[in-house]
Amino acid sequence: MERERKEFMVDQRELIHILHEVQNHYGYIPPQAISQISRKLRISESEIFGVLTFYKAFTLHPRGEHLITICMGTACHVRGAPMILDEFKRKLGVEPGETTGDNQFTLETVNCVGACALGPIAIGDGEYHGQMKTRDVDKIIEDLKPKKGKSAKNE
Amino acid sequence: MNEFNATHLDKIRDEISDSRKKQKTCITICGGTGCHAYGCLKVAEAFKEEIRKQKLQDSVEVRTTGCHGFCERGPIVVIQPEGIFYQRIKLSDINEVISETIINKKVINRLLYVDPRTNKEIILEKDVPFYKKQKRIVFSNNGFIDPTDIRDYIALGGYRALTKILFDMTSEEVIEEIKASGLRGRGGAGFLTGKKWEICRESNSHLKYVICNADEGDPGAYMDRSLLEGNPHSVIEGMIIGAYAIGASEGFIYVRMEYPLAVKNVTIALEQARKFGLLGKSILGSEFQFDIHIFKGAGAFVSGEETSLMASIEGRRAFPRQRPPFPAQEGLWGKPTNINNVETWANVPYIINNGAEWYSGIGTKGSKGTKIFSLVGKINNTGLVEVPMGMTLKEIIYAIGGGVKNHKKFKAVQTGGPSGGCIPADMLDLPIDFETLTKAGSMMGSGGMIVMDEDTCMVDVARYFLDFTQQESCGKCVPCRIGTRQLVEILTRITKGEGQEEDIDRLEDLARTIKAGSLCGLGQTAPNPVLTTLRYFKDEYEAHIRDKNCPALVCKELIIYHIEPQKCVGCLLCLKNCPVEAISGERKKVHVIDQDLCIKCGACFDVCPPKVQAVSKYTGKKRDRILQKPSEKRVQK
Question: Fewer CB within 10 Å: N-end or C-end of chain B?
């Protein structure tokens, strides 16, 4: 009994690591993965579902091609982050956590990235854009769009 | 048997120090998060490239170091051993730095920091006012160490404290030393660290754990991140010492997933520590064995609470649980567990090396040592500052922080993150320690210090924090889950100008209920931002509710943007930048905003040239008067 309990604990301990791996690999947690993890770790699917929906790191839906993250930390907030977020929402037509219909952009917010000197900050595919103004929003979206579309426009 | 022992470590330290002395000049580049965002890695690469080109490798070293703290001025480059401080370095400056400063030994004046008060250029890092008033203990080595190279840490005396305790001190003596130092937990609650260790040590179990809480979730606080990224070995050394004192054999560092660089640097540091015989079996040839694992969080603010954090490591939802039993009695997997915050652990080696007496000589009666604050918001010198406990807010904000940005009027400083509160201008002489902040209705928290000026709306700030805690509430306790939601709804209503006279009483009543009826720190402190803003800024609430007036001109629903006809020069800038085409006008003719179309994005306000400043914001009666004017409608084309 004690041995079983120990094994169970070690298995459950791996759950968040595994979910991170799956999320990294697929960009989301596919339903098949949940049943596979459940069999492997001998944890019920509902328990796994409970854990993965509790944490913000995991999503059940694929993210878009590009990820735009807006820092909503306090320093960014007092420097006008809500206006930047509003503008992204308006331009992309989605709420935070959602992906545009063409699957190009996912808009997300983060509590703080700890680069407060640069606030307000928007992060486009890992690149930091500091001291954002509402008028900079367009450029960030345009720059992330596929290069093909851009050159076609130029021609 | 471990092949490395304490004698080896000393030998390695001497060898590194000797080889370092031959290196005459070292160009250190700040590799902290802020500087990363500014592009410091490109700067570092370019320096290396240029040094190679000019064949200077033998006499000049280029090192990307931990965070220097003065994020406002990044990317920061310091030339050692002189300590010449260059700020806001661009790629185009690099050739000049090498040819002038490195080769010709001349200082380049335009790259120096200029003290805005005296207009004097400052050459050395230690003379910059931002650093001068600080007392850097925990941060003392950040600027010299390449965090990915354990030899840098060892060369500066790293792991000497560990050698000392392993061979010269019993675990009881270590605990006594930490107790005598008066060190208190830097994560927020301020519990005596030595006492905590003692309770854990006395718990009867053959298996014990230590945990480093690096789930730094408070928005606007990033000192733990800088420590882990910049000097991970000081934290690891502290943890090994703690584990020895408590009798733990396994440790965890729980890092927030939003900090990828910290995860990377800690992982490297742990590998190197194992290689040098500092972790694993028979550490440095002693009988003590201990190892540390890194655990990446998954994005839940509540996991910063100790019982939630343990649940998260166990692979479960991060729900807090009732205490007692305290983690020191029954923690991770039911075993005695000692949890300390990053900064607390990082203090430990310094206390062991310099003694409890030295440490307790710094700070105030009840709060010893230094505290790192992240000074952010509407402040001139954004950055991480380490000061002795007991320094006044005024000294921190003005002498170190350089005062409020753009010569605006100071309104409040928010400490303690979502659990803390806002402290008004008339309390700036408050000496900072655990007790004084709590008495003021706020708290130390992890050390976030967000400066707010006259353009910050306090009702909006309260709504911001409650929105935060409401989203992060795990949902276990009803008063927290539903209460915070109600608070947000009432506050949102007030910021929209739909507040009711009774709302203030309702807020206070709800706040008290949430405080009393929540299990963990998140719920118990969640109402603090509301309570402190009500205590010190009630007039702003009343203005929103009674006069539909946002005095700070922040709340969108209560303000309008208006172009002053007598100031507008008709430059078309705002018209072109308006995303919804709400502005009409022609070149050299006065522009007008159509209030029905305006979405209040503020683009016109931003782009109107500083010399013109024709776009104004209005609230209250002035707003109503302007709205009644027929000219605010679209001019027919």
Answer: C
